[in-house]
## 1
Amino acid sequence: MTRGMAHKSTVEQADLDRLQAHLEEHFQPRDHEEAQELILGALQHVQHEFGWVPLEASQAIADHLGVSVNRIYGLLTFYADFRTEPPGEHFMLLCHGAACFVGGSQKLIHELRDNYGIGQGGTTADGKLTVQIVNGCLGVCDLAPIVQFDHEKYVGNLDVDSFNAAIEEITANGSQREDHGAD
Ligand code: FES
Protein backbone atom coordinates (compact mmCIF):
# COMPACT_ATOMS: atom_id res chain seq x y z
CA MET A 1 0.00 0.00 0.00
CA THR A 2 1.26 3.42 -0.82
CA ARG A 3 1.35 5.62 2.21
CA GLY A 4 1.76 9.35 2.44
CA MET A 5 0.21 12.35 4.07
CA ALA A 6 0.45 14.46 0.94
CA HIS A 7 -2.49 12.76 -0.74
CA LYS A 8 -5.07 15.27 -1.90
CA SER A 9 -8.36 14.20 -0.44
CA THR A 10 -11.92 14.78 -1.39
CA VAL A 11 -13.43 14.92 2.06
CA GLU A 12 -16.62 16.89 2.48
CA GLN A 13 -16.66 19.65 5.10
CA ALA A 14 -19.87 18.19 6.50
CA ASP A 15 -18.06 14.90 7.16
CA LEU A 16 -15.28 16.74 8.95
CA ASP A 17 -17.82 18.68 10.99
CA ARG A 18 -19.46 15.44 12.03
CA LEU A 19 -16.06 14.02 12.94
CA GLN A 20 -15.31 17.09 15.04
CA ALA A 21 -18.57 16.69 16.93
CA HIS A 22 -17.80 13.01 17.54
CA LEU A 23 -14.33 13.88 18.86
CA GLU A 24 -15.77 16.52 21.19
CA GLU A 25 -18.22 14.02 22.59
CA HIS A 26 -16.10 10.89 22.90
CA PHE A 27 -12.41 11.78 22.92
CA GLN A 28 -11.19 13.88 25.83
CA PRO A 29 -7.74 12.75 27.03
CA ARG A 30 -6.85 13.13 30.70
CA ASP A 31 -3.12 12.64 30.16
CA HIS A 32 -0.44 11.99 27.56
CA GLU A 33 -0.65 8.20 27.76
CA GLU A 34 -4.36 8.15 27.42
CA ALA A 35 -4.00 10.37 24.35
CA GLN A 36 -2.22 7.52 22.57
CA GLU A 37 -5.17 5.19 23.08
CA LEU A 38 -7.56 7.91 22.07
CA ILE A 39 -5.62 8.64 18.89
CA LEU A 40 -5.93 4.99 17.88
CA GLY A 41 -9.60 4.92 18.80
CA ALA A 42 -10.25 8.09 16.83
CA LEU A 43 -8.35 6.76 13.81
CA GLN A 44 -10.38 3.57 13.92
CA HIS A 45 -13.54 5.63 14.03
CA VAL A 46 -12.40 7.65 11.02
CA GLN A 47 -11.48 4.57 9.04
CA HIS A 48 -14.85 3.03 9.79
CA GLU A 49 -16.72 6.17 8.79
CA PHE A 50 -14.69 7.24 5.75
CA GLY A 51 -13.24 3.91 4.65
CA TRP A 52 -9.76 5.46 4.99
CA VAL A 53 -7.96 8.16 6.99
CA PRO A 54 -7.81 11.45 5.10
CA LEU A 55 -5.16 14.00 6.02
CA GLU A 56 -7.84 16.46 7.12
CA ALA A 57 -9.20 13.92 9.60
CA SER A 58 -5.70 13.30 11.00
CA GLN A 59 -5.28 17.04 11.39
CA ALA A 60 -8.63 17.35 13.16
CA ILE A 61 -7.64 14.60 15.60
CA ALA A 62 -4.24 16.21 16.18
CA ASP A 63 -5.81 19.60 16.85
CA HIS A 64 -8.46 18.17 19.11
CA LEU A 65 -6.12 16.03 21.20
CA GLY A 66 -3.29 18.56 21.23
CA VAL A 67 -0.76 16.24 19.58
CA SER A 68 1.35 16.65 16.47
CA VAL A 69 0.15 15.31 13.16
CA ASN A 70 3.53 13.57 12.88
CA ARG A 71 2.67 11.50 15.92
CA ILE A 72 -0.52 10.43 14.20
CA TYR A 73 1.33 9.70 10.98
CA GLY A 74 3.70 7.47 12.95
CA LEU A 75 0.77 5.41 14.19
CA LEU A 76 -0.78 5.23 10.73
CA THR A 77 2.50 3.92 9.39
CA PHE A 78 3.00 1.46 12.23
CA TYR A 79 -0.44 -0.12 12.07
CA ALA A 80 -0.85 -1.64 8.63
CA ASP A 81 -4.64 -1.84 8.95
CA PHE A 82 -5.02 1.88 8.46
CA ARG A 83 -5.53 3.07 4.91
CA THR A 84 -4.24 6.52 3.97
CA GLU A 85 -5.67 6.54 0.47
CA PRO A 86 -9.29 6.27 -0.55
CA PRO A 87 -10.27 2.74 -1.56
CA GLY A 88 -11.15 2.02 -5.17
CA GLU A 89 -14.72 1.77 -6.39
CA HIS A 90 -14.46 -2.02 -6.28
CA PHE A 91 -12.59 -4.38 -4.01
CA MET A 92 -10.96 -7.65 -5.03
CA LEU A 93 -9.65 -10.39 -2.80
CA LEU A 94 -7.17 -12.56 -4.64
CA CYS A 95 -6.69 -15.91 -2.96
CA HIS A 96 -3.08 -17.03 -2.74
CA GLY A 97 -3.70 -20.03 -0.51
CA ALA A 98 -2.19 -23.44 -1.22
CA ALA A 99 -4.76 -24.68 -3.74
CA CYS A 100 -4.87 -21.34 -5.55
CA PHE A 101 -1.09 -21.20 -5.59
CA VAL A 102 -0.94 -24.63 -7.20
CA GLY A 103 -3.65 -23.51 -9.62
CA GLY A 104 -1.64 -20.50 -10.76
CA SER A 105 -2.48 -17.53 -8.52
CA GLN A 106 1.13 -16.36 -8.86
CA LYS A 107 0.49 -15.66 -12.54
CA LEU A 108 -2.49 -13.51 -11.58
CA ILE A 109 -0.35 -11.58 -9.11
CA HIS A 110 2.23 -11.01 -11.83
CA GLU A 111 -0.52 -9.85 -14.15
CA LEU A 112 -1.66 -7.32 -11.55
CA ARG A 113 1.87 -6.01 -11.34
CA ASP A 114 2.61 -5.99 -15.08
CA ASN A 115 -0.75 -4.98 -16.51
CA TYR A 116 -2.24 -2.83 -13.74
CA GLY A 117 0.84 -1.65 -11.89
CA ILE A 118 -0.42 -2.72 -8.48
CA GLY A 119 0.40 -5.21 -5.77
CA GLN A 120 -0.93 -6.08 -2.34
CA GLY A 121 -3.16 -3.28 -1.04
CA GLY A 122 -2.81 -1.26 -4.21
CA THR A 123 -5.45 0.65 -6.12
CA THR A 124 -5.47 1.02 -9.89
CA ALA A 125 -4.52 4.44 -11.23
CA ASP A 126 -8.10 5.06 -12.35
CA GLY A 127 -9.36 4.41 -8.82
CA LYS A 128 -11.61 1.59 -9.94
CA LEU A 129 -10.14 -1.39 -8.11
CA THR A 130 -8.36 -2.03 -4.82
CA VAL A 131 -6.66 -5.39 -4.38
CA GLN A 132 -5.95 -7.49 -1.34
CA ILE A 133 -3.95 -10.68 -1.72
CA VAL A 134 -4.72 -13.27 0.96
CA ASN A 135 -2.50 -16.19 1.83
CA GLY A 136 -5.32 -17.94 3.64
CA CYS A 137 -8.04 -19.94 1.92
CA LEU A 138 -11.36 -18.49 0.76
CA GLY A 139 -12.94 -21.91 1.24
CA VAL A 140 -13.73 -22.67 -2.37
CA CYS A 141 -10.61 -24.54 -3.41
CA ASP A 142 -12.43 -26.56 -6.05
CA LEU A 143 -12.67 -23.31 -8.02
CA ALA A 144 -8.99 -22.41 -7.57
CA PRO A 145 -7.50 -20.06 -8.48
CA ILE A 146 -10.23 -17.69 -7.43
CA VAL A 147 -10.96 -14.06 -6.66
CA GLN A 148 -13.82 -12.44 -4.76
CA PHE A 149 -15.21 -9.06 -5.78
CA ASP A 150 -16.93 -6.60 -3.47
CA HIS A 151 -17.21 -9.18 -0.66
CA GLU A 152 -19.81 -11.23 -2.51
CA LYS A 153 -19.04 -12.25 -6.08
CA TYR A 154 -16.66 -15.17 -6.70
CA VAL A 155 -14.97 -15.83 -10.02
CA GLY A 156 -12.91 -19.00 -10.19
CA ASN A 157 -10.96 -21.39 -12.41
CA LEU A 158 -9.08 -18.34 -13.58
CA ASP A 159 -6.30 -18.02 -16.08
CA VAL A 160 -4.77 -14.69 -17.06
CA ASP A 161 -7.33 -14.04 -19.81
CA SER A 162 -10.40 -14.81 -17.71
CA PHE A 163 -8.85 -12.85 -14.83
CA ASN A 164 -8.55 -9.76 -17.01
CA ALA A 165 -12.06 -10.29 -18.35
CA ALA A 166 -13.45 -10.52 -14.80
CA ILE A 167 -11.69 -7.29 -13.80
CA GLU A 168 -12.94 -5.57 -16.92
CA GLU A 169 -16.50 -6.65 -16.21
CA ILE A 170 -16.53 -5.59 -12.55
CA THR A 171 -14.86 -2.24 -13.17
CA ALA A 172 -17.32 -1.44 -15.96
CA ASN A 173 -20.03 -1.28 -13.29
CA GLY A 174 -20.58 1.63 -10.95
CA SER A 175 -19.24 1.86 -7.44
CA GLN A 176 -20.15 -0.88 -4.96
CA ARG A 177 -18.40 0.89 -2.14
CA GLU A 178 -20.22 1.01 1.14
CA ASP A 179 -21.41 4.38 2.29
CA HIS A 180 -19.16 5.16 5.22
CA GLY A 181 -20.54 8.63 5.68
CA ALA A 182 -23.87 7.92 7.31
CA ASP A 183 -24.38 7.54 11.01
S1 FES B 1 -6.69 -21.88 -1.38
FE1 FES B 1 -7.81 -20.44 -2.56
S2 FES B 1 -9.86 -20.99 -2.14
FE2 FES B 1 -8.73 -22.41 -0.97
## 2
Amino acid sequence: MKKRFMVIALVSIGAIWMMAREGRNVESKREGGSVMKTDAEWKEQLSPEQYRILREKATEHPGTGEYLNHQTEGTYLCAGCGNALFVSETKYESGCGWPAFTAPIEKNSVEEVEDRSHGMVRKEILCSKCGGHLGHVFNDGPEPTGLRYCINSGALGFESVKSGVSKESREALATFGGGCFWCVEAGFEMLDGVKEVVSGYAGGSTKNPTYEQVCSKTTGHAEVVQIRFDPAVISYRKLLDMFFRMHDPTTPNRQGADVGSQYRSIILYHDAEQKQEAEDVIKELADEKVFEDQIVTEVTAFQKFYEAEKYHQNYFRQNSKQPYCQMVIKPKLKKLGLR
Ligand SMILES: [Zn+2]
Protein backbone atom coordinates (compact mmCIF):
# COMPACT_ATOMS: atom_id res chain seq x y z
CA MET A 1 0.00 0.00 0.00
CA LYS A 2 1.37 3.36 -0.99
CA LYS A 3 2.01 5.78 1.83
CA ARG A 4 0.32 8.70 0.18
CA PHE A 5 -2.74 6.56 -0.46
CA MET A 6 -2.95 5.72 3.22
CA VAL A 7 -2.82 9.39 4.12
CA ILE A 8 -5.45 10.26 1.56
CA ALA A 9 -7.59 7.36 2.68
CA LEU A 10 -7.43 8.46 6.31
CA VAL A 11 -8.27 12.04 5.47
CA SER A 12 -11.14 10.93 3.30
CA ILE A 13 -12.76 8.57 5.78
CA GLY A 14 -14.82 11.36 7.30
CA ALA A 15 -16.05 12.48 3.91
CA ILE A 16 -16.94 8.96 2.92
CA TRP A 17 -18.83 8.37 6.14
CA MET A 18 -20.89 11.48 5.46
CA MET A 19 -21.67 10.07 2.04
CA ALA A 20 -22.52 6.73 3.59
CA ARG A 21 -24.98 8.30 5.99
CA GLU A 22 -26.77 9.90 3.11
CA GLY A 23 -26.67 6.64 1.13
CA ARG A 24 -29.91 5.77 -0.49
CA ASN A 25 -32.05 2.98 0.83
CA VAL A 26 -31.56 0.00 -1.47
CA GLU A 27 -34.74 -1.69 -0.34
CA SER A 28 -37.06 1.14 -1.29
CA LYS A 29 -35.55 1.36 -4.77
CA ARG A 30 -36.35 -2.27 -5.50
CA GLU A 31 -40.07 -1.93 -4.99
CA GLY A 32 -42.44 -1.90 -7.93
CA GLY A 33 -41.77 -0.92 -11.50
CA SER A 34 -40.49 -3.05 -14.30
CA VAL A 35 -36.95 -2.98 -15.58
CA MET A 36 -36.75 -0.96 -18.79
CA LYS A 37 -33.52 -0.62 -20.69
CA THR A 38 -32.31 0.23 -24.15
CA ASP A 39 -30.75 -2.43 -26.36
CA ALA A 40 -27.39 -0.75 -25.87
CA GLU A 41 -27.74 -0.97 -22.08
CA TRP A 42 -28.72 -4.63 -22.26
CA LYS A 43 -25.76 -5.34 -24.55
CA GLU A 44 -23.44 -3.75 -22.06
CA GLN A 45 -24.83 -5.66 -19.11
CA LEU A 46 -25.37 -9.13 -20.60
CA SER A 47 -22.98 -11.63 -22.11
CA PRO A 48 -23.50 -12.14 -25.87
CA GLU A 49 -25.22 -15.50 -25.20
CA GLN A 50 -27.51 -13.99 -22.54
CA TYR A 51 -28.36 -11.14 -24.88
CA ARG A 52 -29.22 -13.50 -27.75
CA ILE A 53 -31.59 -15.49 -25.53
CA LEU A 54 -33.16 -12.84 -23.31
CA ARG A 55 -33.45 -10.00 -25.82
CA GLU A 56 -33.51 -11.78 -29.21
CA LYS A 57 -35.48 -14.88 -28.15
CA ALA A 58 -32.75 -17.28 -29.24
CA THR A 59 -32.66 -20.86 -27.96
CA GLU A 60 -29.47 -22.43 -26.67
CA HIS A 61 -28.40 -25.76 -28.16
CA PRO A 62 -30.12 -28.66 -26.35
CA GLY A 63 -27.96 -30.55 -23.89
CA THR A 64 -25.46 -27.71 -23.50
CA GLY A 65 -26.86 -25.38 -20.84
CA GLU A 66 -25.10 -24.73 -17.57
CA TYR A 67 -28.15 -25.59 -15.45
CA LEU A 68 -29.35 -28.65 -17.38
CA ASN A 69 -28.00 -31.17 -14.87
CA HIS A 70 -27.74 -28.71 -12.01
CA GLN A 71 -29.17 -30.16 -8.80
CA THR A 72 -28.17 -27.73 -6.07
CA GLU A 73 -30.90 -26.51 -3.75
CA GLY A 74 -31.74 -22.87 -4.34
CA THR A 75 -33.43 -20.27 -6.50
CA TYR A 76 -33.14 -19.65 -10.24
CA LEU A 77 -33.13 -15.95 -11.11
CA CYS A 78 -33.57 -13.98 -14.31
CA ALA A 79 -30.07 -13.36 -15.72
CA GLY A 80 -31.28 -9.98 -16.92
CA CYS A 81 -32.76 -8.42 -13.80
CA GLY A 82 -32.33 -10.84 -10.89
CA ASN A 83 -36.07 -11.54 -10.59
CA ALA A 84 -36.62 -14.83 -8.70
CA LEU A 85 -38.21 -17.25 -11.20
CA PHE A 86 -38.02 -20.90 -10.14
CA VAL A 87 -37.02 -22.92 -7.08
CA SER A 88 -34.98 -26.12 -7.26
CA GLU A 89 -37.84 -28.17 -5.75
CA THR A 90 -39.84 -27.78 -8.98
CA LYS A 91 -36.93 -28.69 -11.30
CA TYR A 92 -37.05 -32.12 -12.89
CA GLU A 93 -35.27 -34.21 -15.50
CA SER A 94 -37.47 -33.89 -18.58
CA GLY A 95 -35.06 -35.33 -21.13
CA CYS A 96 -35.73 -32.39 -23.46
CA GLY A 97 -32.22 -30.96 -23.26
CA TRP A 98 -33.07 -27.82 -21.33
CA PRO A 99 -33.72 -27.17 -17.62
CA ALA A 100 -37.37 -27.98 -16.89
CA PHE A 101 -39.62 -26.86 -14.05
CA THR A 102 -43.22 -27.69 -13.14
CA ALA A 103 -44.09 -24.19 -11.92
CA PRO A 104 -42.67 -20.69 -11.48
CA ILE A 105 -41.82 -19.49 -7.97
CA GLU A 106 -44.91 -17.26 -8.03
CA LYS A 107 -47.66 -17.02 -10.62
CA ASN A 108 -46.75 -13.46 -11.54
CA SER A 109 -42.98 -13.93 -11.66
CA VAL A 110 -43.31 -14.96 -15.34
CA GLU A 111 -45.60 -13.89 -18.18
CA GLU A 112 -47.05 -16.06 -20.92
CA VAL A 113 -47.46 -14.88 -24.49
CA GLU A 114 -48.53 -16.73 -27.62
CA ASP A 115 -45.61 -17.54 -29.91
CA ARG A 116 -46.49 -18.42 -33.53
CA SER A 117 -42.91 -18.58 -34.82
CA HIS A 118 -41.44 -21.60 -36.66
CA GLY A 119 -44.91 -22.74 -37.82
CA MET A 120 -45.94 -23.73 -34.30
CA VAL A 121 -48.28 -22.27 -31.71
CA ARG A 122 -46.43 -22.25 -28.42
CA LYS A 123 -46.66 -20.41 -25.14
CA GLU A 124 -43.59 -18.28 -24.69
CA ILE A 125 -42.41 -17.49 -21.15
CA LEU A 126 -41.06 -14.04 -20.30
CA CYS A 127 -39.63 -12.59 -17.12
CA SER A 128 -42.39 -10.40 -15.71
CA LYS A 129 -39.94 -7.79 -14.47
CA CYS A 130 -37.71 -7.14 -17.50
CA GLY A 131 -39.63 -8.89 -20.30
CA GLY A 132 -36.63 -11.11 -21.07
CA HIS A 133 -37.33 -14.26 -23.09
CA LEU A 134 -36.85 -17.35 -20.90
CA GLY A 135 -38.28 -20.28 -22.89
CA HIS A 136 -41.66 -21.95 -23.41
CA VAL A 137 -44.25 -23.83 -21.36
CA PHE A 138 -45.81 -27.10 -22.54
CA ASN A 139 -48.67 -29.25 -21.28
CA ASP A 140 -46.62 -32.46 -20.99
CA GLY A 141 -45.10 -31.99 -17.54
CA PRO A 142 -45.41 -34.20 -14.46
CA GLU A 143 -47.73 -33.75 -11.48
CA PRO A 144 -48.74 -31.64 -9.67
CA THR A 145 -49.16 -29.06 -12.45
CA GLY A 146 -48.81 -31.15 -15.61
CA LEU A 147 -46.72 -28.32 -17.01
CA ARG A 148 -43.17 -28.25 -18.36
CA TYR A 149 -41.47 -24.86 -18.17
CA CYS A 150 -38.65 -25.43 -20.63
CA ILE A 151 -36.11 -22.69 -19.87
CA ASN A 152 -32.78 -21.69 -21.39
CA SER A 153 -29.90 -21.94 -18.92
CA GLY A 154 -28.50 -18.79 -20.48
CA ALA A 155 -31.54 -16.83 -19.30
CA LEU A 156 -30.94 -17.87 -15.71
CA GLY A 157 -28.75 -17.11 -12.76
CA PHE A 158 -28.69 -19.19 -9.62
CA GLU A 159 -28.44 -18.59 -5.89
CA SER A 160 -27.87 -21.57 -3.66
CA VAL A 161 -29.81 -21.80 -0.42
CA LYS A 162 -26.58 -21.39 1.50
CA SER A 163 -25.44 -18.15 -0.09
CA GLY A 164 -28.68 -17.22 -1.72
CA VAL A 165 -30.99 -14.32 -2.10
CA SER A 166 -34.43 -14.59 -0.61
CA LYS A 167 -36.81 -11.68 -0.67
CA GLU A 168 -38.70 -13.03 2.32
CA SER A 169 -35.67 -13.09 4.59
CA ARG A 170 -34.45 -9.74 3.22
CA GLU A 171 -31.11 -10.90 1.98
CA ALA A 172 -29.01 -9.73 -0.88
CA LEU A 173 -25.61 -10.47 -2.36
CA ALA A 174 -22.67 -8.24 -3.14
CA THR A 175 -19.48 -9.34 -4.86
CA PHE A 176 -16.24 -7.33 -4.71
CA GLY A 177 -12.60 -7.91 -5.56
CA GLY A 178 -10.08 -5.66 -3.87
CA GLY A 179 -6.87 -7.63 -3.90
CA CYS A 180 -6.13 -10.56 -1.62
CA PHE A 181 -9.48 -11.94 -0.52
CA TRP A 182 -8.22 -12.80 2.96
CA CYS A 183 -7.99 -9.12 3.82
CA VAL A 184 -11.24 -8.09 2.20
CA GLU A 185 -13.13 -10.96 3.83
CA ALA A 186 -11.84 -10.03 7.29
CA GLY A 187 -12.94 -6.41 6.86
CA PHE A 188 -16.48 -7.11 5.71
CA GLU A 189 -17.10 -9.79 8.33
CA MET A 190 -17.06 -7.17 11.08
CA LEU A 191 -19.95 -5.12 9.75
CA ASP A 192 -23.45 -5.24 11.22
CA GLY A 193 -25.93 -6.62 8.72
CA VAL A 194 -23.32 -8.78 7.00
CA LYS A 195 -24.41 -12.39 7.45
CA GLU A 196 -21.67 -14.23 5.62
CA VAL A 197 -18.56 -13.48 3.60
CA VAL A 198 -17.18 -16.17 1.33
CA SER A 199 -13.84 -15.93 -0.48
CA GLY A 200 -13.74 -17.09 -4.07
CA TYR A 201 -13.10 -16.33 -7.70
CA ALA A 202 -15.19 -14.45 -10.27
CA GLY A 203 -14.95 -12.29 -13.33
CA GLY A 204 -13.10 -14.82 -15.49
CA SER A 205 -13.93 -17.66 -17.81
CA THR A 206 -12.41 -20.88 -16.43
CA LYS A 207 -14.96 -23.19 -14.82
CA ASN A 208 -14.20 -24.39 -11.28
CA PRO A 209 -10.80 -22.70 -11.08
CA THR A 210 -8.28 -23.64 -8.40
CA TYR A 211 -6.22 -21.15 -6.42
CA GLU A 212 -3.13 -22.24 -8.36
CA GLN A 213 -4.87 -21.63 -11.70
CA VAL A 214 -6.06 -18.20 -10.58
CA CYS A 215 -2.55 -17.34 -9.41
CA SER A 216 -1.20 -18.41 -12.80
CA LYS A 217 -3.28 -15.53 -14.28
CA THR A 218 -4.72 -17.72 -17.07
CA THR A 219 -8.33 -17.87 -15.85
CA GLY A 220 -9.29 -14.20 -16.03
CA HIS A 221 -10.74 -14.53 -12.53
CA ALA A 222 -10.14 -12.07 -9.72
CA GLU A 223 -9.92 -12.96 -6.05
CA VAL A 224 -13.27 -11.78 -4.74
CA VAL A 225 -15.53 -12.00 -1.72
CA GLN A 226 -19.22 -12.70 -1.93
CA ILE A 227 -21.14 -10.95 0.83
CA ARG A 228 -24.57 -12.07 1.98
CA PHE A 229 -26.17 -9.13 3.74
CA ASP A 230 -29.45 -7.81 5.08
CA PRO A 231 -30.28 -4.62 3.14
CA ALA A 232 -32.54 -3.51 5.98
CA VAL A 233 -29.49 -3.29 8.26
CA ILE A 234 -26.71 -2.32 5.87
CA SER A 235 -27.20 -0.82 2.43
CA TYR A 236 -25.26 -1.81 -0.66
CA ARG A 237 -24.03 1.76 -0.69
CA LYS A 238 -22.39 1.29 2.71
CA LEU A 239 -20.72 -1.89 1.50
CA LEU A 240 -19.38 0.07 -1.48
CA ASP A 241 -18.01 2.75 0.84
CA MET A 242 -16.33 0.08 2.94
CA PHE A 243 -14.92 -1.52 -0.19
CA PHE A 244 -13.30 1.72 -1.30
CA ARG A 245 -11.89 2.31 2.18
CA MET A 246 -10.35 -1.14 2.28
CA HIS A 247 -8.27 -1.18 -0.86
CA ASP A 248 -6.51 1.06 -3.34
CA PRO A 249 -8.76 1.32 -6.42
CA THR A 250 -6.15 3.27 -8.39
CA THR A 251 -3.49 0.62 -8.99
CA PRO A 252 -4.23 -1.53 -12.06
CA ASN A 253 -3.86 -5.26 -11.36
CA ARG A 254 -2.13 -4.61 -8.09
CA GLN A 255 -2.68 -4.18 -4.35
CA GLY A 256 0.49 -3.23 -2.52
CA ALA A 257 2.99 -6.04 -2.97
CA ASP A 258 0.39 -8.32 -4.59
CA VAL A 259 0.71 -7.99 -8.35
CA GLY A 260 -1.41 -9.69 -10.99
CA SER A 261 -4.78 -9.45 -12.71
CA GLN A 262 -6.30 -11.61 -9.94
CA TYR A 263 -5.73 -8.67 -7.58
CA ARG A 264 -7.55 -6.14 -9.76
CA SER A 265 -10.16 -3.87 -8.24
CA ILE A 266 -13.55 -5.12 -9.41
CA ILE A 267 -17.23 -4.70 -8.54
CA LEU A 268 -19.50 -7.47 -9.85
CA TYR A 269 -23.03 -6.09 -9.70
CA HIS A 270 -26.03 -8.39 -9.23
CA ASP A 271 -28.70 -6.09 -10.63
CA ALA A 272 -29.25 -2.75 -12.31
CA GLU A 273 -29.52 -0.88 -9.00
CA GLN A 274 -26.14 -2.15 -7.82
CA LYS A 275 -24.58 -1.15 -11.14
CA GLN A 276 -25.99 2.36 -10.83
CA GLU A 277 -24.83 2.72 -7.23
CA ALA A 278 -21.34 1.48 -8.03
CA GLU A 279 -21.03 3.96 -10.88
CA ASP A 280 -22.42 6.75 -8.70
CA VAL A 281 -19.92 6.08 -5.90
CA ILE A 282 -16.97 5.97 -8.30
CA LYS A 283 -18.09 9.25 -9.83
CA GLU A 284 -18.47 10.88 -6.41
CA LEU A 285 -15.05 9.69 -5.26
CA ALA A 286 -13.54 10.99 -8.49
CA ASP A 287 -15.38 14.33 -8.31
CA GLU A 288 -14.25 14.84 -4.73
CA LYS A 289 -10.71 13.74 -5.62
CA VAL A 290 -10.65 11.30 -2.73
CA PHE A 291 -7.85 9.43 -4.47
CA GLU A 292 -4.90 11.14 -6.02
CA ASP A 293 -4.86 8.84 -9.04
CA GLN A 294 -7.61 7.74 -11.36
CA ILE A 295 -9.94 5.00 -10.08
CA VAL A 296 -9.47 1.91 -12.25
CA THR A 297 -12.11 -0.28 -10.59
CA GLU A 298 -13.82 -2.57 -13.10
CA VAL A 299 -17.64 -2.55 -12.87
CA THR A 300 -19.08 -5.62 -14.53
CA ALA A 301 -22.14 -7.87 -14.41
CA PHE A 302 -21.90 -10.77 -11.99
CA GLN A 303 -21.86 -14.07 -13.85
CA LYS A 304 -20.69 -16.83 -11.57
CA PHE A 305 -18.96 -17.18 -8.25
CA TYR A 306 -16.62 -20.07 -7.50
CA GLU A 307 -16.08 -20.63 -3.81
CA ALA A 308 -12.39 -20.80 -2.94
CA GLU A 309 -10.82 -23.88 -1.40
CA LYS A 310 -11.74 -24.49 2.25
CA TYR A 311 -8.35 -23.40 3.59
CA HIS A 312 -8.92 -19.88 2.25
CA GLN A 313 -12.14 -19.30 4.19
CA ASN A 314 -11.89 -17.24 7.38
CA TYR A 315 -8.16 -17.12 6.82
CA PHE A 316 -7.65 -14.19 9.14
CA ARG A 317 -9.55 -15.67 12.05
CA GLN A 318 -7.89 -19.04 11.63
CA ASN A 319 -4.39 -17.73 10.99
CA SER A 320 -4.09 -14.44 12.81
CA LYS A 321 -0.57 -15.37 13.97
CA GLN A 322 0.69 -15.92 10.42
CA PRO A 323 3.13 -13.22 9.28
CA TYR A 324 0.97 -12.28 6.27
CA CYS A 325 -1.98 -11.45 8.48
CA GLN A 326 0.09 -9.53 10.99
CA MET A 327 1.80 -7.43 8.37
CA VAL A 328 -0.88 -6.86 5.80
CA ILE A 329 -4.30 -7.56 7.21
CA LYS A 330 -4.04 -6.14 10.74
CA PRO A 331 -2.71 -2.73 9.71
CA LYS A 332 -5.49 -2.46 7.16
CA LEU A 333 -8.14 -3.26 9.75
CA LYS A 334 -6.57 -0.89 12.25
CA LYS A 335 -6.66 1.84 9.66
CA LEU A 336 -10.39 1.31 9.38
CA GLY A 337 -10.85 1.48 13.12
CA LEU A 338 -12.22 -2.04 13.32
CA ARG A 339 -9.57 -3.63 15.52
ZN1 LIG B 1 -35.86 -10.36 -15.81
